[in-house]
From TrEMBL:
This is Receptor-like serine/threonine-protein kinase. It is an enzyme of class 2 (transferase). It comes from Cinchona calisaya. It is found in: Membrane. PANTHER family: G-TYPE LECTIN S-RECEPTOR-LIKE SERINE/THREONINE-PROTEIN KINASE SD2-5, RECEPTOR-LIKE SERINE_THREONINE-PROTEIN KINASE. Its EC number is 2.7.11.1. It is a single-pass type I membrane protein. It catalyses: L-threonyl-[protein] + ATP = O-phospho-L-threonyl-[protein] + ADP + H(+); L-seryl-[protein] + ATP = O-phospho-L-seryl-[protein] + ADP + H(+). Keywords: ATP-binding, Disulfide bond, EGF-like domain, Glycoprotein, Kinase, Lectin, Membrane, Nucleotide-binding, Receptor, Serine/threonine-protein kinase, Signal, Transferase, Transmembrane, Transmembrane helix. GO terms for molecular function: ATP binding; carbohydrate binding; protein serine/threonine kinase activity. Gene3D superfamilies: 2.90.10.30, Bulb-type lectin domain, Phosphorylase Kinase, domain 1, Transferase(Phosphotransferase) domain 1. Belongs to the protein kinase superfamily. Ser/Thr protein kinase family. PROSITE patterns: BULB_LECTIN, PROTEIN_KINASE_ATP, PROTEIN_KINASE_DOM, PROTEIN_KINASE_ST.
Length: 812
């Protein structure tokens, strides 16, 4: 090699080393190989001035930690950024900048909790800057990732918010999971505040707009800047025009040389700009932040959208305090769902019942009147004109569906549950009537009320018959006797027989004859599976006829005979919105039947492989809902449950197309501290994990494998094995998908699905998650909890290893 060339290369290398060394000296950089561990006394990485620190902060009263940035010099050390609000890290977790330039947060077991979402490469150092920005930089000190580009709930001076970046509120003051409110700069140039649907993040109607769209010239705002010298928030349009978003004399009242500033989307949905003294005064700190500006001024009136729970959540009404904070109140007959977070709405204290034989509506309900309240029309299902207030109140009282009626200017607007966006406005002429179960009755068992009605009817029928055929004196005696009977029935009605109710926690038992009658001698078959045949049935429960799905099990083993009742009882206690609910069972000699809630829209397979496939957004929803159900079975039950047969035929859809896992009640139950089980092969061809074919313990990872195959079917809307494919490479779905992934031709998977093709980033993420799930080695596969976090965007999805061919034999 030419000497001069080698000399030149050596100078470049030396320059890089010196450059990095100087940079690290100026900015107190974090070098490759440095790490922090989550403990109460853990160290932090501070900015040169000491204004900000990066490290772990322990959650209040919990042994969990947030990876975060905070103001380090003020007493309350206010958080301004956090990485893992939806997935707090246990004690002993570690954040590390590895010698390979990878930056990640891992739990004590080494599982990744969080990574930067842009997959930075070429990182040679990190730094906590005096602006409050934490950066990952390359050899040339260019930022390859920075916390300013991935905000939590706060913006800091000099920070820029660009289009498609969101600032999301936390759930409550001490709960850092993603909340219902967000700040966005949308492509048309408007800065907006809106509520979102969790967990998907779909945006509802905005309740604040900056009005920064230039309609005549078509120019739109493209960035929001937090000015470091003036303290103002302003938008720079693409034509160079600057539009101030804030108002008032913030820079004069709270000069930046003397005050720290921050702009936060608070958990109540209000965007506030705060100021805090940089130094103590006369040796004393003002430990509170002063509000320099906020919007909207009236959050309750601003929230007028047709969807979502509004400011305070469902079944509430809202009034705005002087500082812009909402004051949330429950409607009569409701209590806060979470007393510690009054923005989560209210739930009904007692369920309403209709058409109770022998009892009048006015005996059951009181109509509570509220004044100066207003609602939007989101839950209005009927409007009656030319009705007086009394007529409006009576109309709601006798309407089984009506929960609340608004009488205004001769119109009567009836609403059903849940109601949203209620607000108190002084001077309104509205009269609101809320139907509430009578206080005397609501304290008693609803089923007792039903018996009471029948008892009263029978009693008074007897009175009438006797009075008609008796003398006056005897009539007096009979009246007295009957009154005693009635009073005793009222006094002792809590001892009356309790009727069956779908709200009971106890599992019902049915006779074989009961279920034979319910199914009309097992006439209408809904489907067959590896465990049994399912029939449609109608049962009389709680005075109502309800549809059910009755599964007649095939002959089970002698050991299964002994465990049947025990397992059914365990499953009956499991309640999750993404699991089909078990209502009861029949156990008579050889007859083993299970009774489930009826799922009106059938199996997922019917929609995935039918003529009209579900829309892309709905398929994403299915994937997340199934993962949630599995996580509940694996991690949140007192007894871990491995399903062993996850496939689209075992995913059922209710009347609102919510995905629910079925047949989990027949899966192998595992004791919580048991790491694995050796058992006979179970499952369905194409979905069976490789370890079933080896003499190795089977863990919950078999479900993760099956879920990965199912996820690919959801993505592509085709079966995992399709022998009718003309191209042999496409017969086995898992192999074809992996080929498309490695060849970067993922568009082939959704060739004629325009909606999916326009969302290639989400498509690639879901494919990568699926490939992680179908790894041959179960130790390489993520847990279903990690899968869910990857799908929801809580953790970054790294490139998966290659997929090895694995056996998928036929399973009986």
């Amino acid at each position: 090699m030419d000497f001069s060339f080698r000399h030149h290369i050596g100078l470049i290398a030396l320059f890089k080393i010196l450059y990095v060394a100087v940079a690290q000296t100026n900015y107190r950089n974090i070098s490759l190989g440095w790490s922090l561990t989550a403990f109460d006394d853990s160290a932090s990485w501070r900015s040169p001035s000491g204004d900000f620190a990066f490290g772990f902060r322990r959650l209040e009263n919990q042994n969990l930690y947030l990876l975060s940035i905070w103001f380090d010099k003020i007493p309350n050390q206010t958080l301004v950024w956090y990485a893992n609000g939806d997935n707090p890290a246990p004690q002993g977790s570690r954040v590390e900048l590895t010698t390979d330039g990878l930056f990640s947060l891992t739990d004590p077991g080494g599982e990744v909790i969080w990574m930067p979402n842009s997959s930075p490469v070429g990182v040679v150092y990190a730094a906590m800057l005096d602006t409050g920005n934490f950066i990952l930089a390359n050899y040339y000190s260019s930022n390859v990732w920075q916390s300013f580009d991935d905000p939590a709930d706060t913006l800091l001076p000099s920070q820029v918010l660009r289009v498609h970046r969101n600032v999301s509120a936390r759930t409550s003051e001490n709960n850092f999971t993603r909340g219902r409110f967000e700040l966005r700069l949308i492509p048309d140039g408007n800065l907006v505040l809106n509520t979102i649907a969790l967990p998907t993040g779909n945006a509802y109607e905005a309740y604040y707009w900056s009005n920064t769209v230039d309609a005549p010239g078509g120019m739109t705002g493209n960035q929001l800047i937090f000015n470091a010298s003036s303290g103002y928030l302003y938008i720079i349009k693409t034509n160079g025009e600057i539009v101030n978003v804030t108002s008032g004399n913030i820079g004069q009242t709270f000069p930046t040389r003397d005050y720290y500033h921050r702009a936060t989307v608070d958990y109540d949905g209000v965007l506030r700009l705060y100021a805090h003294p940089r130094t103590s005064r006369n040796g004393r700190w003002d430990e509170t932040w002063s509000t320099a500006w906020f919007t909207p001024n009236d959050i309750c009136s601003a929230m007028m959208g047709e969807r979502g729970g509004g400011t305070c959540g469902f079944n509430t009404y809202c009034s705005t305090e002087n500082d812009g904070r909402p004051n949330c109140q429950c409607l009569p007959g409701f209590s806060f769902s979470d007393p510690n977070n009054k923005l989560k709405g209210c739930e009904q204290d007692a369920f309403q019942k209709c058409n109770l034989e022998g009892l009048r509506a006015e005996d059951l309900y009181d109509m509570h009147q509220l004044n100066n309240l207003q609602w939007n029309n989101s839950t209005q299902y009927e409007e009656l004109i030319s009705l007086t207030e009394d007529q409006c109140k009576s109309s709601c009282l006798y309407d089984c569906h009506c929960f609340l009626a608004v009488s205004i200017e001769g119109n009567c607007r009836k609403k059903k549950l849940p109601v949203s966006n209620g607000r108190r406005l002084e001077g309104r002429s509205d009269r609101v009537f809320v139907k509430v179960l009578n206080s005397d009755i609501s304290s008693r068992d609803p089923n007792t009320i039903l018996n009471l009605g029948k008892t009263n009817q029978a009693t008074f029928s007897l009175v009438a018959a006797l009075l008609l055929g008796s003398s006056g004196f005897l009539n007096l005696l009979l009246v007295a006797a009957i009154l005693v009977i009635v009073l005793r029935s009222y006094g002792g009605r809590t001892k009356l027989r309790k009727l069956p109710s779908l709200l009971d926690t106890n599992l019902r038992t049915f006779t074989y004859v009961d279920l034979k009658v319910a199914t009309k001698n097992f006439k209408e078959e809904l489907g067959r599976g590896s465990f049994g045949t399912v029939y449609k049935g109608i049962l009389q429960l709680s005075g109502s006829r309800i549809l059910v799905a009755i599964k007649e099990l095939y002959k089970i083993s002698q050991e299964g005979e002994k465990e049947f009742k025990t397992e059914a009882s365990v499953i009956a206690k499991i309640h999750h919105k993404n699991l089909v609910r078990l209502i009861g069972f029949c156990d008579e000699e050889s007859h083993k039947l299970l009774v489930f809630e009826f799922m009106s829209n059938g199996s997922l397979a019917r929609y995935l492989f039918g003529e009209s496939r579900p829309k892309w957004g709905k398929r994403i929803q299915f994937a997340v809902e199934i993962a949630r159900g599995l996580m509940y079975l694996h991690d949140e039950c007192s007894t871990q449950i491995i399903h062993c047969d996850i496939k689209p035929q075992n995913i059922l859809l209710d009347d609102s197309f919510t995905a629910k896992i079925s047949d989990f009640g027949l899966a192998k139950l595992m004791i919580s501290n048991q790491s694995g089980t050796l058992t006979a092969i179970r499952g369905t061809k194409g979905y069976v994990a490789p370890e079933w074919f080896k003499n190795t313990p089977v863990t919950a990872k078999v479900d993760v494998f099956s879920y990965g195959v199912l996820l690919l079917e959801i993505i592509c809307c085709r079966k995992c094995t399709d022998m009718e494919r003309q191209n042999e490479e496409e017969v086995i779905l898992t192999e074809w998908v992996y080929d498309c992934y490695t060849e970067r031709t993922l568009h082939k998977l959704v060739e004629d699905d325009e909606e999916a093709r326009s969302d290639m980033r989400q498509l690639e993420k879901m494919v990568m998650v699926a490939i992680w799930c179908i790894q041959e080695d179960p130790n390489v596969r993520p847990s279903i909890k990690m899968v869910l976090h990857m799908l929801e965007g809580v953790v970054q999805v790294s490139a998966p290893p290659c997929v090895s061919p694995s056996p998928h034999g036929s399973i009986s």
